[in-house]
Amino acid sequence: MRASGILLPISSLPSPYGIGTLGKEAFEFVDFLKKAGQSYWQVLPLGPTSYGDSPYQTFSAFAGNPYFIDLDLLAKEGLLKQNEYRHLETPNPELVDYEYQYFNRFKVLRLAYSRFNPPKESDFEKFIEDNKKWLDDYALFMSIKGLHNDQSWWLWEEKYKKRNREALEEFIETHQSDIGFWKFVQYYFFKQWLALKNYANQKGIEIIGDIPIYVAQDSSDVWSNPLDWQLDENLDPIDVAGCPPDAFAITGQLWGNPIYNYEKMEKEGFGWWIERIKESFKLYDVVRIDHFRGFEAYYAIPYGHPTAEFGRWVKGPGMKLFQRVKDVLGDVRIIAEDLGFLTPEVYQLLADTGYPGMKILQFGFDPYNDSEYLPHNYKRNSFVYTGTHDNMTVRSWFKILNEAEKAFVKAYLDFEDDEKVAEKMIKVCLASVCKVAVIPLQDYLEQGDEGRINVPSTLGGNWVWRIKSDVLTEELHQKIYSWCKTYRRARY
């Protein structure tokens, strides 16, 4: 069945309190999606963001972002009074101020925690028990981090850095309330998220989630299980992840994430990955795995190098990992983000898994060469996008093209008026053979530079884009519905 969806991060939702949350506006967006005839809502990773605010660099591969907890919903449960968090309203509702959130939102959440008094055998206790595999380490990690002024774990005292058993037991005994706070935060994140997901599913909307291939070095995952990563005896990374130089980044992309110890993981049946994917399907209906090509071969850059210019390609786990996923979890619904430097081996891995790949229309318009990203080359088992969170909006992208490229775009899409470019790009995605078309909301809104979410390999000014509630108009959902109906993608 042909279908369509909209890409919109949770952080980009409207709300009075500085960042999108899992409250009223999120439920209203689900209603908007239904009216627009959509089948999917695609979000970015939901983890707790760290330095740089990127959802692809989080303190845990399993935890949720405390910023997304809706404070009005906590107030309805009697944990807050509205005047206690009014100060979180920000002067610019179209941008996220992460620094302000960092310094102010946790104070409000701690106030709510001080009034939280669940009975024995409560849902809270059940949540703690059901999530012990990751929650205990995460809460301990965040609590020790707080004791060290939020420094990265490799800068902690040696006894905490290297997880001295007696030191950790003593810390747990003397910091039970603070550890409990971090479990409280996760309880309410999951409670609110699952309520939203259940509402979406009832409305016929499925959630497409996004999990990064790597985890942050400064994460509870690496700190609590260092042998699962390629670290030296001092727990520093041996190599770190990134991408080699290309036309978009002349010195490559230095992500800095530690690389998995796949040899150890394979001996243990890829247990960490199985658990991660299993937990992801509690949050999402479909899971997009970022940087899929890294499973065939990953780009390893010696730790400490200032750029990604001197890395090397190393074979990854390949089909051994995904066969194990299938053996344990069955036929899960995974989208492979198969972008970047692709080789015949990567294409073969994608074919062997059977996972749908991604087609990005913006990548297709080379006037002098054919491209797999042009619709006449698409295959049905694909998800097509005008662009992703890492790309310019269609309007901004079109403006920077040279004259030959613009002429090719106009000829291929058959239009003359430059103002029609967003509409034409969306419609050709919707018309394509791909089984699902996902369009970033800012392209439906025909936004320019103000709609950019992320500029890869830059720090600052990213992940801040938001919408106002008044943009989700009846006119907009009728337009989206009409276009999707024309190309047989509307649900009703």
Question: How does the SSE layout of this entry go?
Answer:
Layout: E1 3-7, H1 24-35, E2 40-42, H2 71-76, H3 98-114, H4 123-130, H5 132-147, H6 158-161, H7 165-174, H8 176-202, E3 206-211, H9 220-224, E4 239-243, E5 253-258, H10 262-267, H11 271-283, E6 286-289, E7 297-302, E8 312-315, H12 319-329, E9 334-336, H13 344-353, E10 357-360, E11 382-385, H14 394-400, H15 403-413, H16 421-431, E12 436-440, H17 441-444, H18 474-486
Parallel strand pairs: 1-2, 1-12, 2-3, 3-6, 6-9, 10-11, 11-12
Antiparallel strand pairs: 4-5, 4-7, 7-8
Helix pairs in contact: 4-5, 5-8, 11-12
Segments where pLDDT lies below 50 for 5+ residues?
Answer: none
Largest sheet: 8 strands, parallel
User: How do the strands of the widest beta sheet line up side by side?
Assistant: 9-6-3-2-1-12-11-10
- Form type: globular
Number of helices: 18
Order of helices and strands: EHEHHHHHHHEHEEHHEEEHEHEEHHHEHH
Span of the ends, CA to CA: 13 Å
CATH architecture: Alpha-Beta Barrel
CATH third-level topology: TIM Barrel
Overall pLDDT = 96
Strand content: 5-15%
CATH homology superfamily name: Glycosidases
Helix and strand composition category: alpha/beta
Which bin fits the share of residues in helices? Answer: 25-40%
CATH top level label:
Alpha Beta
Q: How would you describe the oligomerization state of the chains in this entry?
A: single chain
Alpha-carbon Rg, integer: 23 Å
Number of domains: 1
Number of strands: 12
Summarize the structure.
This protein has 492 residues and is of the alpha/beta class.
